[in-house]
Batch of 2 targets.
Target 1
Amino acid sequence: MPRFDVVALFPELIQPVLQHGVARRAPELGGFEVHWWPLRDHAEGTYRRVDDRPFGGGPGMVMLADPLARAVAAARTARRQAGSEPGGESAPVVSFTPAGRPLDQALVGQLAGGSGAILVCGRYEGVDQRFIDAEVDLEVSLGDFVISGGELAAAVLLDAVARLQPGVLHDPGSHQQDSFSDGLLEGPRYTRPERWSSRTGERPVPDVLLSGDHARIARWHREQSLRLTAVRRPDLIDRLRASGGLDARDEAFLRGLGTS
Ligand code: SAM
């Protein structure tokens, strides 16, 4: 069962994400545990400092290596004592930074299926590089933008992992249809009413979805996924093709679109 240990200055920013909706069920179903390591608890001195001015000058503050290293060491000890590291293997230490590897469903799946990780959330202008060099196994980015702290990145990762835990989604097949699970974006979905009167006119549901012909419906979904992915993310089509994930029918469909 994956166990996540979160080192953060503001764990209270992450906790609500795991108290609502689908993610709330993950710990309840026993598949997933999260433990919190508030950084101030590992800081020293009257002011419990966790940051200081950067050497060489420059704007803002930098997170001190020592409190982070103490929090990670405490998390490691607790994991060992709880038997959360089968085979004595240490869980990876994952830190969040715009300079990291972009978070994707493959990494989420890897973390969801393993024994978890220790997540380190940065703040201020970032973390003393020596802590990263000494302790961090993987740096992860949410994307090409800057947020104020790693807590939101950790919340995103934990939510994505939680919904992959067995039993968490009411329909166990639904994450297999999610975008990226089969290497493609998920195509359009429709619900009632069959004809919706929009501001711009009547909009019926595509006929095929009302046909009851499951094979035709499955093929339609596949082709909608292929179409959307070819238009929006041709890089994903290239990757899927290289890994042998497109069959002759898919290739014929893509040729018909004129995008490949
Ligand atoms: N000065 C840093 C830079 O330009 O790369 C940004 C620091 S940011 C204000 C503070 C913290 O937020 C970072 O240490 C990191 O933990 C987190 N953070 C900001 N943007 C992020 C992103 N795109 N992905 C993951 N974490 C991010």
Target 2
Amino acid sequence: MKITKVERYQLRLPLTIPFQTSYGVLEEKSLDLLILEDELGNQGYGELVSFEQPDYIEETISADRQLIEQQLIPRLFQAELQQVEDVWSLFQSVQGNFMAKSALETAVWDLFAKREQRSLQSYFGSQKSTLPVGVSVGIHVTTEDLIAQVSSYLEQGYQRIKVKIKPGYDIVPLSAIREKFPDIILMADANSAYTLADLELFKQLDQLNLAMIEQPFHQRDFVDHARLQQQLQTKICLDENIRTVEDVKTAYALGSCRAINLKIPRVGGITEALRIVDFCQTHQLLVWLGGMFESGIGRALNLQFASQTIFTFPGDISAANRYYAKDIIKEPAKMEKGRIAVPQGIGLGIELDWRAIQEVCEQKQTYSSNHSINQ
Ligand code: OSB
Ligand code: MG
């Protein structure tokens, strides 16, 4: 297969409610839609999910756009892809920049599926047609507001609640939720905001019957995470630390965690994500699917991937209306009885809503294999 054309739509979607984490507030989501075309005119869709600020991890969307244009698209145009995994090898001479690679890698998977007239799900041997889902709740100013938000999500049917924490906003809000809802699947996500000096706090959190505590320490640390895991009953889950299967091996060897939040874009795409799933399966690590405030394109990818039988823990894959008033695909993801349907059809199984895309598009760029055109 030859890639002959790439279109890049630079979009900005306003969030329904601001999302606060230990590192900052998100009010609008920047994202790029990438459309790859092959020599037969098939199209594959990818989403670039990185943020404008380098606060979650080091990647930024502006640096990713440059890398995609200057490094990744030229490699794609030169390649003759025999099988879908070839795109992973093609990008190996570029270090890091996982979300940039993932935007194109996942689009190539969609393109192969379109060519072969099969669903993306069918490549993973998956059977599930609906998935149980959870929701990630941002930091709220008052405990009352937080409880009201959690109650509302539970009423809507979300099967697992993740609460963002930061120093000074942790044991009090979490205890309040646990007291009000003794039986829900509850967890916390610190986004790297603590150190081992906070051990006493984690021992208190350990009493709340949390499903797990996500990313308590620095995203380059494996050793202190292991020291903490040794002293807790509660599972530690790593998010920011995990970029490759080698990171999962390190975490496993040291005992740094018992669960992995797998985000396809954070590990550079589907090929690496499959390696991680495989490692987790053979080593009894709990693996579940995380999110990046994706639009309907990235969400369709997450649903296709999370339909594999190994994903039983409800992921951060919420209904479209939890994130955006208006999604950019036809038939945005809806939740029914705490579950979201895996889009059916070939490839990602979605249709783009061009009117919605045009409303939020800031810039469009076309690259073709013989020359680049700016529009
Ligand atoms: O740490 O998991 C995280 C969103 C953006 C960046 C990082 C994280 C999150 C979430 C929400 O927790 C995931 C989602 O619902 O898309
Ligand atoms: Mg996280």
